[in-house]
Batch of 3 targets.
Target 1
Amino acid sequence: MPHVCTGKALKSCIHAIRCGIITDTTLWTLCRYRHKTHWSGAKNLLDRGKNNKFGDAAYAFEELVAELGAAFLCGATGVESVPREDHSQYIQNWLKALKSDKKFIFSASSQAQKAVDYLFSFQEQAEAA
């Protein structure tokens, strides 16, 4: 695995582990953005119901929300969003879900934007303080 980023959401905190495999700053930033988007879906936050397993539609949905959220954050912060080699494992799940649900991409985009808005609300709070 050329690029691995793992993280764990505990008590409304994000613990992203930089294990030395990701040496590219852009990929590391993209990884952090994906994990922050995932984190925003916790039950006590935006509650996207994240008890899913790889391959099911709910898992594909959450992964697409995270991917879109990261892309939106990259666009807003001027970071180049680069494709990762390990994305191919998700693409098949996304295509399967897109074929069975015509609103899948719109729902995922909407949830991703809510996540980004939520994440940016922290910046607004900090600037107001």
Target 2
Amino acid sequence: MTKLHNWIFCPRQARTSDLVLRKIEVSDLTRARGKLAPNWEDPYWIIDIVREGTYRLATIEGEQLPRI
């Protein structure tokens, strides 16, 4: 049981220059296409770690995303 618990709840270590997916917010009505709508946006680069779990992201082309 402990091994399974540790595998499921292991913390993820993200570093700068990692590629990540950004979760699409439900309140975005322009993307509301029902149950089959995508849950994740394009891959982004992590360019800075603000604090644990908070990152500054940039597109693949290098354009920095604004804060949400």
Target 3
Amino acid sequence: MPTYRSLVHQVSPVCNLITLVSISRHLLINFPAMAPNAEFMPLHNICEWLNALHVYTDEARNGKTRALEAHHYCSHVRKNLRQCLIYDSGRQDARLIGVEYMVPKQVYEKLDAEEQKLWHSHEFEVVSGMLAVQKLGDQLHDKWEELET
């Protein structure tokens, strides 16, 4: 698991008010997400909703069948890369259960063997009908079409 580091700026008691105001103004200008009422801008990039049943394939190979409903809310990071937030339902109180990246088969095939072990195909889910693209509003559909072509 990666290590995360954060920068903590400790202000000495003798720091004057002008410096504090200057730092606050700099943060509000340069880091608007820190400002009150900031929008959740990364979420505005979501333009695709996939609903799927995720089957525990290792268990299925041993005769045990277990599946999990998974709602994927995806954005296009770039032409050949989707980033999806996976929730356990489509309700307002849904729990985030994963993050998944999707690439086309031709990109996957160029990955080295060790990297390929970390990925899985959605081909079975698509062919079996266990994965469905949900209806989007017109604005999101237009954004999706633009990214797909």
